[in-house]
Structures are given as structure tokens and as C-alpha cells.
Write a structure and sequence with these properties.
19 strands; 14 helices; alpha/beta; 434 residues; four-stranded antiparallel β-sheet; homotrimer; eight-stranded mixed β-sheet
Chain lengths: 434, 434, 434
């Protein structure tokens, strides 16, 4: 069954709810770019999709980088002079700066302060901080709580470990009719932040689950990786696979109710760029298409000049451009089942284009074929306006072997699926060949 | 004498009047895609231009199609229960659906109704209907008249014939200096409808008459054909001729006072597309340039992918986009002599570009030539602004063999004729060669 | 020392003042396309730059032209019937039409009138006139003064000479690392007119002086030539040099306070065109970029089809488009030190792009390099917004050998200098090679 048809069988409301519930399970886990939080999260993803787990040992050379030590944390807190826990990792893992080295000390407030991070612009939110490549420790707290700290000696504890171990990522490969691949990549390294990027994880997982159940034209590869170092690790050991990637998407921030944003690949005019623009444009809702820039997430690695892969980024509100980004306000209230299911929907429409895009050739290219004698009815009078025969006429006219279905969709402004259906019908009558 | 010069000798007002009178003569004839109505109409066209008549026998295979049977009609009417002719072909041939099979019957109003067509949106207009490829019969009447029909038994008569015969079209070939051709095609299959397309017929006929009298660079071929099946018939037996077509236009709807519309060829950037855009743009009146789409008239066949000819469509209000289209309101009041002569004017400007477009080469390409010593006066002081020396300077600068006059007109924004005149002058002085 | 660094050492206010003072010295001299006025002016330019003077004898064939006779003038006046000098060359050299043949005569006002030029639209301004290629004489005066002339006999004297001699131009060549050249051309043939073109002369002279003092990548050639016949003369004897020109600018009208105008080369997309557009765009002030047209100054010769050199024109208000143009109002009040220094500034920014534009290649093209381990600090958190690491990331991403720094500046919207600095830093670390 074709993906466009499968879509019509899905109960989107239920799927949105199921994705939301998966986010709720993943939310409390303390993830970072390495460590058990990633493993726990991938175990949950694995309930949905056949996930191969990879462990890359600390110190492994990956291009210009090496895999960092593994970080784990059991507990962390700060007690004020009166013994009250004023900061407590057990309440939210955002309170500890990711990759904090272990600390167990008493110190006056003045000595503690340089290790405390808050955001006066959003006084009730806890910001999220990390220090992956410089050994440091720190606590994050709301500005309101920061203001309440009283002078005196504080007990500081970070019960973490930073030791040789491994970097963990998950990979799910779904073979298709051809060995050419579509890559879907999402980052799994953020702690209790819902939109960035539990939303990307669950949408990816549900998509993989769906595709695993149907025949596929392309082979699909899903990556659940720590941002940056994860894509570098994967590329370093998969150069040959990378050369087979025909299309790809980085998924992130897909659970809020903002307008869709697509950031193009470095190439800017790859099929994935045109497919995403077409779907977002067809949706008739406001949407942004941003040109590639070398900032952001794993697209920085996939689109580095030595790879220059045709991979874009699909988001709702774009990373860095919503106030809740990387704060405690990116929580279970900020993402919604409806937004997740809409994102899933758009993603399926994009995949349906990739799967079904073909170059056809009209077998009867001199003048129009006599459709009526084959029982193909073009409704009514002369066809001038937009109507159901449009896809048939556009296809017959443009199918000269040099225009793909996507080219025809973009040129005609017709939606891809109607062209696909028309193509199927015309092939049945022998009027189109591939 | 060059066409641009001929134009200045024409009395446009008289020509508009003469074209209008020719429409008035053609108006009452009942045309369809085959039959005597076409022959009668072509006989009138033949008074103006040397027209070769072609008769293609019914059943002839033309690509995926075959030539239909020939349809002729003598009379048709409907009498109401009281014996009154409530619908009468003699009053207007629009009352009968084109290609109606013969009928002679009595039937109650309920049985008649499915064969009656009217348009409640324009209650006083008679719509125009045809059923070429499905055997059927029908009457068209105004919605107002439809409402007046009383219950009871009706006498129905369509005295038509649908038999083996032939499809008729007219062709006028005007040889030029080169065997490369310009094709002008217009459809002759519509009954008493003025703008669509008696206007196209008369403008074509007058243009052919004009071109027949002057020396031509290109060879010109005028087709007076039934829409769809006519262009298919012609293409099927003229593939080699088609390969010589360098430019072409389908003419229709040229008699109303709407703004000009040009619909590009499938290629979109053919010389004919740029010439028409340039002329319409230069006219400084509102005009539309529409991109090709595979709907409409004979351009559907000429621009089918196996031919992809550089042929566009010139119209005033575009087919399907004026309320009178295919109704009794497209009558002798809807078209006007002035609109016809304006259309003729624009068409001559377009032909003048096709005829005179050349690639020249400046024989003195290093620095500007010393024009004054040849007596070529560039007025006044340094030439900065728009003035008469502009065409000379643009030509000398751009004439490097890779820019045609049309290219230079488009780039400079100068009108084509002034560039033509300047080119003629500069050739006289040996400063340009072809 | 690099030009961008030199710029920061300049005291722009002083330079503007110095340029203005040089204009004031040049102002009284009566220049034309030949004669001692040009020589006197070049002598002043020579105080700043090592200028080679060329004298091309009258009658020398230069392509389609020949060098005209040399014109010199000592005095000229008109005395009215009462003996009063109503027009006096000693008050302003604009009063005599340039290239006026000698005259000594008495004539009634009616006979004199055809030789008098004034402008009723600006009744207090004296227009500027020339008659280089047609032997004639004339006087220019304000319309107000013209109105005061009384009937009667006038004494007319033009003490000029038009004899075989030579055409004079100045050339300053500054050798660089490569023999490829940048051409800077400015016209020196206008009499007491400040903006057109003493401004171009002084900005050129100061630029040559600056460039003479620093190491250069390209070789630079400055031309101080009479307009039209001067560029034709130079091209005729420098075809081989012309073939080495990679970039060039014609400088004129750089002293008024109008917005900047850049007129592109005939090619329209040459590096000089993109460099100038980028600098004017980056300045964040209103600026115009005009497409090439074959009117104007020496670009008409440099961009003639046989040369088609990548040479544009840099101006403030564009020639012909300010009311003071070619009138006595283009005087020492119309140009300002501040405007001259701004123009000089912009010009240096343009030269800095030409000098430093290179194609680099990222030596570490697969994934991003690990910058932090080299001590290259990218500030703070993930880099999403505009900030100092942007040039580094854009460079690493785009430096694939097919994008120049200018390409990257245009694509990223970053200013060229920040990219240059980043490139220098990355080369130091071995991350970029040329």
C-alpha cells in the first residue's frame, strides 16, 4: 500500500495523542550527548522501531574530533546556609549544567555565584546550559529563585561522572526497492525539553514505524543521535552510505503550534527543497522557507562542503526563535498532540513526493490522445479552469522525459497527489511510461 | 515595401469597418467542426486570400484520433402542446446542440427536459453546446424561455445528418525569402459567435491579404481549421512542414474591447513570446502575459510534447474569461470595428518584429565609430537621456553577433521599429553587417 | 600593510579637506580635450602621483577617429555698443564655447545672437558648451544677462588658436604582485566645473598616491584623459594592456552630497559590478545601481563590444541628473570635503575587495573542524544569530574552491572585511588554502 493511501487510513488525532504520551515518558530522563539518559531514551524508541544501537568508544578519532568521555549523573543539589535544598536536580534535570564535572564542596555565595545561571528576561524560567568541551560545572535556576539566595555558606553537590565510556546512537534502516537512501535524522541529546527535541524524536519514531510496515521505493535510514558529535561520528564511519543519500531531513521542534519552517539544504534547489516548499505552499497556511546558513543543528555536518548532502531541516517555530527555546518553559504544556499530528501529516506528504516522484514519458506525444475512447472522461465542456482533468492534461503535456512529477507540480501549481493519481491512471492505459 | 512601412499606409478605421462587415456576413452561418457551414465560411474567406481547401475523409486515422462523420443540419424546432414553435433553429443556430443526431418525436416535457440547456446566471442568453464525440441531441434556450414552458406533449424535430463525408479546412501559403515558416492558425468551427471566433477569422484573413501583397522574409502559412480535430488533422499530415515552423500564433477573441492577453508557448521564452510581450508592453496599455497551460484551443496540439512548437495565443479578453463567452451574447454588438483594427495593428507590429529580427555585427567594434564624419548627426550635447540617437548607440554597443534586434529592444526598452530604422541606416554606412 | 588596514590609519576629515583644496587650485584653469589647460592640470596631479605624460600628435589615426587639432585660448570678450565688456572670459572660462575658433569682429546683436547660449530654466547660471568636431564659435552667459543686451553693434573677440599640436593625457602605473590590472580612469577635459570632474580627478589622484605606498596584489593603472577621444587614444595604443584588465572603474561626479550611483559594466555581473553593489549595499545608505547603457562617459569606449571590459562607473549624483551639471553652478560651493572623503572611503572599500578576493578551500571539508581545540573560540552557546563567529562558519562551509570571498559575502550578507579577517585567521591555522 502506497504511503499516500496509508495516510488516509490513519487516525491522526489518536496518533497525536500517542506521540504526546511518548514525549511524556521521555520527558523526565536526563539526556546529554553521552550517557545512560540516551540509552534509556533509545530503549523507549526501540519499542516502536527496530533500532540498532551503536556505542562508539570515548577517544575514537572522528575526522577532526574525538569522541568525548561519557557523562552520567545521579544527583545534584545546593543547600543554603540553613540546610534547605534551594536547587535540586531531582525536581528538574535542567538545574544542572550538562557535562558538569563532580563537585562536593562548601563555599560562600560569592564563590558559588559564577557557577549559577539564570535569565532575568524570563524570571520564572530555568535556562538550560551545557559545557561539553570545556571542563566546568554549574547550576541553572530561575532568576526569581536566584534573587532569594541569602548570604552565607552553601553546600554544593554534583554527583556526576565523566569517564571513558562511549557515545550512543540509534539507527533504523528500512530497505526499499532501491539502495538509494532517504536519511531522517533527529537529535536525542537534550534533557527535559519537549519541543527541542522530544518532538523530533517521537515524530521520527512514528514515521519509522509507519514506513516499516509498507513497501518502499527508497531505502530509509533513521538516525537518533546526539547533536553535532553524533552526526560527525556517523558520517565518519558511513561515508559510503552517505554517498547513497538522495534526500534527507533533519527533524526538530515539531511539537509547538507555530507556522512551519523549512530550511533548505546547502544546494538550495535539491528535490527535497522543492518537495518541502511545495508541500508547505500547498498547505495554504503561512510557512517560512529559509535559505541554508551554516548555523543550527546537524545540517551543519551533513551540508559541510565535503558532503554537501541534499538534506534540509523541517521545523515549526525554528530553533532559537521561540522564547521557550532551551528553557524550562519548553515543557509538556508547550507541545500539543494536534501540532505533533500536523507535523506528522506534513512529513508524510513530503515522503509521498519523494517516494512517488518519477520522470514519465507520454507514449502518444504528438497531439493529445483521444481520452474519451478509452473511457477517460474529462468533465463537461472545454477545460479552461482548474478542475479534475487538469492533472491529466498537465501530465500529458509535460511528460517528455525531462520533467519529473515534482517539476510538473511546481510548474502547474497542482498538488502532487492529484498528479500521482492521474499518472497511475494514465500508465494503466499505456499513455505514460517511466 | 516593408511591413512596418505598409502599416503607415493603411487606413485603420476603414479596415476595422471592413473586418466588422465580414463578421456580419459570416455570423448567420451554422458552422461546426465539419459540414457545409465551414465550407460556406471558407468561401467568404477565399474572397480575400488564395485559400487551398482540404477535405479529409471521415474515418481517416490522425494519430490517436480518427476524423469524425460529417454533420449537417437543415432545420430544428420544438413545438409546445399548443403547436407554437417555442424553440426555432431558424432564429438562431445556437438553439441546437452542435452535432445533434436527427430526431423526430413527440414527448412529454419531462422527457424533453434532459435535452434542454439554459443558464440561470444569465437568464436572457442562449448558451452554446456541442457533443462531438458522444452521440446525443439537445436544444439550448434562455433560462427565461425555459421557465415559460408549459406541461404537455412537445413536438421535437432535428433535421440533421451525421454521415461519412469529410472534415474541411483552409490553408493559405505565402512563400517568403526563406523556407522557414510562421504559422497563423484560427478556428472556424463555432456557430453564430462573433468574438469566438469570427474575430480571429477576419483578422487572419485580412493579415493574409496584406502579407500576400508584400515581399516577405519568412514564408507564412495561415490555417482556418476546426478546433482540436483540425489542428490534429493538419499536424498528422504535415510533420515535415511543422519542423520548419520558427514562430506562430493562434488567433482568437480579437474583437472585444478588453485588454490584450498573450498566452506564451510551452517553451515560454521563444522569440514569439518575447516579441509579443515586447509589443504589448510597448503599447503602454494594460495587457496580460499568461504562462502556457495545457488548456484552451489549438495550442494544446501545437504545443504537445512531440511538437513543442514556438506558438502562442493572441487574444483580447481570454477565452472562457468573459461572461458572453459561448453564449448568444457574443453577438454583433459585442465586437467592434475599433477593437478589430487595434488587434490588427498589434498583430502587424508583432509580424514586423519577426520579419525584421536579425543578428547584426558592428564592423567597427573597438570604441565607438566617428559618426559625425559620415554625416550621422547625434543631436546636441552628450547623449544621456532618451532621444533619437539612443537606438544608434544601443545597436553599435550590442551588435556583437550574439544579440538580435529583439534582444536589444528588450534590454534597452526601446521600441523595435526605431532599432530597425537605425540598423538600416547603419548598414547603409557599412557600420553593421548581418 | 593591507589596504583595509591602511584605511583605518587615514584621517578622513583631513583628506577631504586636502582634496577640496586641490579642487580649488584646479578650478580656474581652462581645460578642454586638448591644450595647455590639460597640461597645467596634470602638472598639479603630478605633485601627488608619478604621472607619465603622453602627447599624441594631431592627426594620429586612432581607430575610426583621428586626434583633433590642439585648442588654446588666451582671452575672449564681447563689448556692447557702449564699449562695456558684457561677456568676459577672464571672469569665467565657461563664457566661451570650448573649441571656439578665433574671432575678431563687429556685428549687430542680431548676428551675434545665434552664437549666444543661455538657459532660461536657470536664469542666473552660465551653461557650458563645446563644439569639438564642428568648427564653430560661441559664448555662454546667464539668461538674466542675455536679457539685458541692448540693440546695436557688438565687438566680439575670441583670442584662441586651433592648430596642429597634440592631445595630452596622464598615466600612472603601479606594479603589483600580478600583471593583471585594475584600471581607474577619470576625465580631465572639463573647464571650471567642480563635480564634473575635478572631483574625479582629485579622488583618483589621492587613491593613486595611497596605493603607491603599499604592496599591491593587482597592478593598477590610473588614466587622466580627455573624455571620449582620450579613452579612444589610449585603447588604440594599448590593446595588449587592455587584455590584462580584470577590473576597472570610471570615476566622475564624486564631490556632491547625493546618494552614490554605480553604473554596471556592459557584462553586468562582473566582479567589479558585484563588489560595488556589495559595498554600496553594505553602507546601509540609499544608493542606486544602474544597469549599463551605451550613454555617458568613457565607459562607452571601454565597454564597446570589441573590448567589453569589466569596467563600471562610480558616481554620487549621476552625470546629467543634477541641475548644476554642466553649468556655472557646479562650482566650489557644490562640492564638499565631507562628500569627497566619503567617496574616497567607498572607493577604498571597493579596492579592498578586489585586492583580497580569493577562492579558498577548506582543508577539513568533511564535517566542521574542532575549532575550540585550536583555541578558536566561538562565543557562548549554539550560534544561531548574527555574531562574530558567522564569518568563520560561512567560510568553512562555502570554501570549496568554487566560491570566492566576494561570492560568500554576497550570499551570506556579511561584510567583506569580516570574511577577510576570518580567512586570514583560518589560514593561519591551516584550515583554509588558496
Amino acid at each position: 500500500m502506497d504511503i499516500a493511501k496509508v495516510k488516509s487510513t490513519l487516525h491522526m488525532e489518536d496518533m497525536g495523542q500517542a506521540m504526546y504520551e511518548m514525549i511524556a515518558r521521555l520527558f523526565p530522563i536526563c539526556r546529554s550527548i553521552t550517557g545512560n539518559g540516551v540509552r534509556e531514551s533509545l530503549a523507549i524508541v526501540r519499542e516502536h522501531v527496530p533500532l540498532e544501537l551503536h556505542e562508539i568508544p570515548s577517544g575514537t578519532r572522528i575526522y577532526d574530533w574525538s569522541v568525548p568521555q561519557e557523562w552520567n549523573i545521579r544527583d545534584a543539589f545546593v543547600r543554603d546556609p540553613s540546610g534547605i535544598k534551594v536547587i535540586d536536580f531531582q525536581r528538574s534535570n535542567l538545574h544542572v549544567m550538562s557535562y558538569s564535572v563532580p563537585v562536593r564542596a562548601r563555599m560562600p555565595l560569592e564563590a558559588l555565584r559564577p557557577h549559577l545561571y539564570s535569565d532575568p528576561d524570563h524570571p520564572n524560567w530555568v535556562p538550560n546550559r551545557r559545557s561539553y568541551y570545556k571542563k566546568d560545572w554549574g547550576f541553572c535556576l530561575s532568576y526569581a529563585d536566584m534573587q532569594k539566595l541569602i548570604p552565607g555558606d552553601y553546600e554544593v553537590c554534583i554527583d556526576s561522572s565523566l569517564e571513558d565510556g562511549s557515545l550512543t546512537y540509534g539507527e533504523c534502516f528500512l530497505p526499499g526497492d532501491v539502495t538509494d537512501e532517504v536519511l531522517i535524522s533527529t537529535h536525542v541529546c537534550h534533557p527535559s525539553l519537549c519541543n527541542d527535541n522530544l518532538s523530533g524524536i517521537v515524530v521520527s519514531a512514528f514515521l519509522a514505524q509507519l514506513l516499516a510496515a509498507i513497501p518502499l521505493h527508497f531505502s530509509y535510514r533513521f538516525l537518533f543521535i546526539p547533536q553535532g558529535i553524533g552526526s560527525i561520528s556517523w558520517l565518519a564511519s558511513n561515508e559510503e552510505v552517505a554517498s547513497r543519500i538522495r534526500h534527507g531531513l533533519v527533524l526538530s521542534c515539531l511539537g509547538d503550534d507555530g507556522d512551519f519552517t523549512y530550511k533548505t539544504s546547502r544546494r538550495g534547489d535539491a528535490d527535497i527543497d522543492r518537495a518541502c516548499s511545495h508541500v508547505l505552499h500547498e498547505s495554504a497556511k503561512p510557512a517560512r522557507v529559509l535559505k541554508f546558513s551554516p548555523h543550527g543543528g546537524d545540517e551543519r555536518q551533513f551540508c559541510s562542503p565535503g558532503f554537501d548532502l541534499p538534506i534540509g531541516v523541517l521545523m515549526r517555530s525554528s530553533y532559537g526563535n521561540f522564547p521557550q527555546y532551551h528553557t524550562s518553559a519548553d515543557d509538556l504544556n508547550f507541545v500539543q498532540p494536534k501540532a505533533l499530528s500536523e507535523s506528522f501529516n506534513v512529513l508524510i506528504d513530503i515522503i509521498a513526493i519523494l517516494e512517488n516522484n518519477r520522470n514519465y514519458r507520454n507514449t502518444c506525444p504528438r497531439c493529445e490522445p483521444y481520452l474519451a475512447k478509452r473511457g477517460i472522461s474529462l468533465s463537461g465542456d472545454w477545460p479552461f479552469g482548474p478542475s479534475k482533468e487538469q492533472p491529466v492534461l498537465w501530465l500529458l503535456n509535460m511528460a517528455d522525459g525531462s520533467h519529473s512529477l515534482l517539476d510538473i507540480a511546481v510548474r502547474s501549481g497542482l498538488d502532487f497527489d492529484s498528479l500521482c493519481q492521474a499518472a497511475r491512471m494514465l500508465r494503466k492505459y499505456g499513455l505514460l511510461t517511466e
